[in-house]
Amino acid sequence: MTTPRRQRPNAHSTLRLLLFLSHRSTDSTLAILTPPPHVPAKDPTQTKTLRDNFGSDVNKRFRAIKGEVRQVVEELDVLHLGRQSAENSAPDPRDYEFLSDSEKRQRFQAWLREQVDGGVLEPAEGRAVRRGEHWTSQYVQKGYAKGVTDAGAKIRQQGSDAQVFEDLEDIFNQPVHSSKIELVYTRAYDGLEGITQEMDTQISRELSNAISQGWNPRKAAREINDRVDAIGMTRARTLSQTEIIHAHAEGTLDRFESEGFTEVEADVEHHTADDSRVCPTCASLQGNTYTLAEARGRIPIHPRCRCSWIPIVDD
Ligand SMILES: [Zn+2]
Fold first, then answer.
1. According to the model, what pLDDT value does residue 84 have?
2. Which of 31, 40, 60, 91 is buried most, with the most CB atoms less than 10 Å from its CB?
3. 206: burial class by Cβ within 10 Å (0-12, 13-18, 19+)?
């Protein structure tokens, strides 16, 4: 808090940042004529490493579940699917001692829920989640913090003052950030919880099919793991991307707000290096002015979005 703080907004000179991001701007003379306060980036948030780390953590967790499903359903055949088909051809009275179909299903689902809770979700109380004690917190916290420090850099690029934070502690010692990060933690946790619940529901359906249609154990394991892939792993991986970008955008907006800014515009992501076009979905953001309230929750616009916000300085 040693850096001088800016006055409230009316002191800002109108210096609307020119966005150097015409989607047709492969024209290099434009770059020379208009030295950008800010060069269009493929990834304005520069959070790739963070997103990748979160994504691999997610992958590792779901892959372990798939391994266990394969072992339990296919190799151990706990659902007695192999025996069931044998029973059809050559009935054996002892087979009838087994659990009823719905008991088998319930027991398996309870087992699976335990695996998913232990290996993927790690259920936590709301209060613990808000304190950042869940495993997802470490990633979104860094995304948020990067948004905060990036926002400071953007403010300084415009010639205004903004404190340089040296570490996470510096940032989260500030009440504005320590209170807002709670929402970011909670959103990531709730999202993951929702994904595991949906996965549960879909697997339950596959189990009914497996039992009623007498699938062999291998097919059953494959179909269950297909749900783990398509619902669990895929959506959780998307979540890991989305939540970092969301955290980054919210950290950025919170910083602008705490520094007295009231309006922003989008720092829109660009596609590949050789074709610097704005992502068509995100192009709708481009060139618009948003109040901070309007900007909240707008980024990410789509699952792989990497857009960010830049402040508008007015007078
Ligand atoms: Zn975007």
1. 54
2. 40
3. middle
Q: Find the 33 Cα to ligand 1 centroid distance in Å.
A: 26
List pLDDT tens digits, range 279-301: 888 888 888 999 999 999 999 99
pLDDT digits (tens, 9 = 90+) for 33-86: 333 444 556 789 999 999 999 999 999 999 999 999 999 999 988 888 886 554
Taking the centre of ligand 1 as the mean of its atom positions, its distance from the CA of residue 19, in whole angstroms, is 15
How many angstroms is it from 300 CA to the middle of ligand 1?
6
Q: How far is the CA of 306 from the centre of ligand 1 (A)?
A: 5
- Distance (angstroms) between ligand 1 centre and the Cα of 270 equals 8
* Nearest-angstrom CA–CA distance, 163 and 156: 9
**Whether the predicted model's global pTM rises above the 0.70 cut:** yes
DSSP H helices, the chain, are 28-33, 48-69, 81-89, 101-116, 126-130, 137-157, 168-172, 175-212, 217-227, 234-258, 292-295
Beta bridge partner(s), residue 310: 265
